[in-house]
Amino acid sequence: MTAKIAVLAGDGIGPEVVEQGLKVLEKTAQKFNLSLEFTPARVGGAAIDQEGTALPAATLQICQNSDAVFFGSVGGPQWEKLPPEQQPERAALLPLRQTFNLYANLRPAILFKQLKNASPLRADIIGEGFDLLILRELTSGIYFGQPKGRADDKAFDTLSYRVPEIVRIAKVAFAAARKRRKKVTSIDKANVLTTSVMWREVVVEVAKDYPDVALEHMYIDNAAMQLIKNPRQFDVVLCDNMFGDILSDEASMLTGSIGMLPSASLSDGNFGLYEPSGGSAPDIAGQNIANPIAQILSAALLCKYSLGRPDAHDTIFSAVNQVLDENYRTRDIMSAGCQEVSTSQMGELICGKI
Amino acid sequence: MTAKIAVLAGDGIGPEVVEQGLKVLEKTAQKFNLSLEFTPARVGGAAIDQEGTALPAATLQICQNSDAVFFGSVGGPQWEKLPPEQQPERAALLPLRQTFNLYANLRPAILFKQLKNASPLRADIIGEGFDLLILRELTSGIYFGQPKGRADDKAFDTLSYRVPEIVRIAKVAFAAARKRRKKVTSIDKANVLTTSVMWREVVVEVAKDYPDVALEHMYIDNAAMQLIKNPRQFDVVLCDNMFGDILSDEASMLTGSIGMLPSASLSDGNFGLYEPSGGSAPDIAGQNIANPIAQILSAALLCKYSLGRPDAHDTIFSAVNQVLDENYRTRDIMSAGCQEVSTSQMGELICGKI
Ligand SMILES: CC(C)[C@H](C(=O)O)[C@@H](O)C(=O)O
Ligand SMILES: CC(C)[C@H](C(=O)O)[C@@H](O)C(=O)O
């Protein structure tokens, strides 16, 4: 059976890194005898310029006919003057998340041992590196809660959650932890927010079905501290939409290289959207110097979750590790004694190990 | 004229560190010929145990009759089983903030050059240390917005701001920046939140009255990264209530010693509440090992803002610096080649320099 993949390269470094991701996917398909069909579609600023909207109907249609979306990144200074609701990030990403009910956002924050020097943290805090998984609820909370608006001199947003929305993301978190180091840290602000009090109650209930997984609760303000103090204490970090946005960016910075971090946005079936955690990096776009590894690891996640091929995932992951072991680095992760390579060279090198 | 100071020592390390803060205030009063009158009052878990409520009416009355509140810290494991709205932190702090309209929370995050080794950040990122001021809106936003509640299987909180609430905190931020390095970074999530769009508009308006101060806007997720990547880029960081809660804790951790960080919560007049940024630290309470410097620097802020004596503030600040220069350290900031001292010894040493 052929798996259909919508390719939404977007803006900035998106097209360059997506190209490398596709090379890797093709090489992986050969090796594992997978049949993949790629359909490119416009998104973000590029779509605004050509069709007046960040997420054209045709693009949405292509995604709807696909098994997975391979997403680059969107946005850039030329669209920053647009009203907030028309800007590429918001106008492309939020409707995609909502339309496809992509409620579970997986953001692994892994400090590769080869890149320990790149982390802003002191060596004794990092130790042998860390590997945590932020699990962010992606289709509810203050991002989508109603009412939201302005009246007279007042503006308001609504943070709301329903029990089943918390149950399903919590289940994903516990199931993931079961396959990892068996610990879930649930983030909330239960000393202030009513939603957090309910969040905590529901998570405690769900945890009963996973007696082999340890559960702890942590306030968001404390979590923002603990991530820096000792990132190795975390395994799976379960967050609502807004807290997950903040903590995943913070965690990614601790790895020293947002260019290394993939993400997967999943729903109940096999459909998923895969994109690097970083943005479109307009300052380095078009120079063939961006790090394609986040995009390539996103391709690995696509194999695992949408194609049901963890073996293909592991092969890509290990190819990346081998290339890092051989001391090849893009500029963002360059350090003394290593060999600097371009975006496309990095893509080639990784393909060579598959 | 005698200045009346309500002393709410609270729980955990609160009483121990407040005692040192009072010693320093008394010594400072002698030196500068200030007349201070201290009135102790119960708050937090101690008040719950004795009077069944975290903020007894008598305590509120004492605060109302005072010019400033010198606050220790509240909370501890023995009260964690209480319903959220009765827990010491929330039930004491939130009503105090609201009753006294303490809308401007100043949280300086200073990495003292003597303590560079204590920071979790790499030496090259820290450089000669950093000194930023988080200005957090403290009486509105999602902490107090209505409606807030539960219905059926749903829970909700409201994030709301009115224009004048943003104007007044923005003015405090720009006025503070004017006396510092003349830069305000305003934090929001204007790509998602309606309140943030208005926040940004209002801050831009207020900025027009401070043409000598540079203004930049930063999304909260990016700010959580930038604080770690390069804390030295910030001068004054202007935040709403929730974002300020998160960023101030993150920033405090970067200084490596939450035991060093004071805070002031101010309104329009001279009245203010002064407390360490850290919590009640029940694990080390009663051992005479807690760091009293945050409390002592909070006393310095009290002199500056409620007594109108910046000279007294500077004297206390410089006393702390001298004691650090002489390599005296409490356990939390201890490092090789230094002399470890107790809570009360640290208080004595600082008094000795005033
Ligand atoms: C662009 C923005 C709407 C988005 C978010 O806040 O979810 C981004 O920050 C992310 O984390 O994917
Ligand atoms: C205890 C809690 C309600 C409080 C807050 O969130 O404001 C605390 O975290 C703080 O920062 O003062």
TrEMBL record, chains A, B:
UniProt lineage: Bacteria, Bacillati, Candidatus Margulisiibacteriota, Candidatus Termititenacia, Candidatus Termititenacales
Location of the Isopropylmalate dehydrogenase-like domain: 4-350
GO MF, any single term: NAD binding
Catalytic activity: (2R,3S)-3-isopropylmalate + NAD(+) = 4-methyl-2-oxopentanoate + CO2 + NADH
HAMAP family on file: LeuB_type1 (MF_01033)
Protein name listed in UniProt: 3-isopropylmalate dehydrogenase
PROSITE patterns on file: IDH_IMDH
Pfam families: Iso_dh
Keywords, in A-Z order: Amino-acid biosynthesis, Branched-chain amino acid biosynthesis, Cytoplasm, Leucine biosynthesis, Magnesium, Manganese, Metal-binding, NAD, Oxidoreductase
Superkingdom classification of source: Bacteria
Enzyme class: oxidoreductase
The protein's role, per its UniProt record: Catalyzes the oxidation of 3-carboxy-2-hydroxy-4-methylpentanoate (3-isopropylmalate) to 3-carboxy-4-methyl-2-oxopentanoate. The product decarboxylates to 4-methyl-2 oxopentanoate.
Gene3D superfamilies documented for this protein: Isopropylmalate Dehydrogenase (3.40.718.10)
Pathway assigned in UniProt: Amino-acid biosynthesis; L-leucine biosynthesis; L-leucine from 3-methyl-2-oxobutanoate: step 3/4
Required cofactor(s): Mn(2+); Mg(2+)
One GO CC term on file: cytosol
Keyword Cell cycle: no
Gene: leuB
Subunit note: Homodimer.
Organism of this sequence: Termititenax aidoneus
